[in-house]
Specification:
This protein has four helices and nine strands, in the order ααααβββββββββ. It has helices at 2-10, 34-72, 75-128, 133-161, and strands at 167-175, 185-192, 195-203, 209-211, 215-218, 226-234, 237-246, 257-262, 270-276. A hairpin with a 5-residue loop joins strand 3 (195-203) and strand 4 (209-211). The chain is flat, with a radius of gyration of 25 Å. Mean pLDDT is 86; it is low at 1-7 and 13-29. Residues 2-277 form the FAM65 N-terminal domain. It comes from Chaetorhynchus papuensis.
Length: 277
């Protein structure tokens, strides 16, 4: 166990990643979620491979043009194309390293998860056996092993979270048909963990909408979902329209995702967002 744990720590910085919310300000959350981490890892790896395939296709296209240009075009244009090819090649190497790092972290996470499960099962078995000095000592050691594996899993979750990239969320407006009238004012509150976005909008006389903000960058979180709350502003009073949650697992893709969320139970008011990873 100690050899495995030291190998995990030797491959990563001993300092908790700053972007991992649960490791900030000493507020450790000793509750790793292997099933959620597995879902995020698979979605992340799929999205990274999509980016890799897209840039590899671009490189193939540029390389083909590069050969033709060398024979038939101006020297300046040839060097400009050569510069583009080198740029794409560097980005591909960066993506390949990113994918390998994510795979390495997840492999280490799975090892610690299996070690923790094994120690937990042994602890339960010893707890049911007759109480002796040897069994009590074993229970103490097993409890220590479970705690250490849990700590390592939380640490790796933090390191993995640093590699999740960014979500660029754009406000596309409310859809409400007869529910939205000129002059109505609304407030939309979007939260992802500790990250918050509060924006206000108004329905104009031509049924268009104006919002005080149009885009916000969120750092993806392994355990948190998007929470969206919409309220209607009427003078000094506010009326809650609805509160919904939205999982971010489908956002790890190369193409912008158009999201339409039912704010009310009957879907009479919807919120339109666009998410680009």
């Amino acid at each position: 166990k100690s050899l495995s744990r030291s190998s995990v720590r030797s491959r990563m910085s001993l300092k908790p990643p700053k972007a991992y919310n649960s490791l900030q300000k000493g507020a450790l959350i000793w509750d790793p979620k292997p099933l959620q981490v597995k879902k995020i890892f698979e979605a992340l790896k799929k999205g990274l491979n999509e980016y890799l395939e897209a840039h590899q296709a671009e490189l193939d296209y540029l390389s083909g043009r590069h050969k033709d240009t060398k024979r038939n075009s101006r020297l300046a244009f040839y060097y400009d194309l050569d510069k583009q090819i080198r740029s794409v090649e560097r980005y591909i190497r960066k993506l390949e390293f990113h994918i390998s790092k994510v795979e390495e972290l997840y492999e280490a996470y799975c090892i610690q998860c299996r070690l923790r499960d094994g120690a937990t099962n042994m602890k339960q078995a010893f707890a049911l056996s007759p109480a002796t000095k040897a069994s009590r000592e074993s229970l103490v050691e097993l409890y220590k092993n479970v705690q250490e594996c849990t700590e390592d899993m939380c640490f790796i979750e933090g390191a993995l979270e640093v590699h999740l990239g960014e979500f660029h969320v754009k406000m596309k407006g409310l859809v409400g048909f007869a529910r939205l009238c000129p002059g109505d004012q609304y407030e939309v509150f979007v939260r992802l963990g500790r990250q918050k976005w509060r924006l206000k909008g108004k329905i104009e006389t031509d049924d268009s909408q104006t919002w005080d903000e149009e885009e916000k960058i969120f750092i993806p979180n392994l355990h948190e979902k998007f929470e969206i709350k919409v309220t209607e502003l009427r003078g000094l009073a506010t009326i809650l329209v609805g509160v919904v949650t939205c999982d971010s697992i489908n956002f790890f893709t190369t193409k912008p995702q158009a999201i339409i969320v039912d704010i009310t139970e009957l879907g009479t008011i919807k919120l339109r967002l666009e998410v680009l990873w």
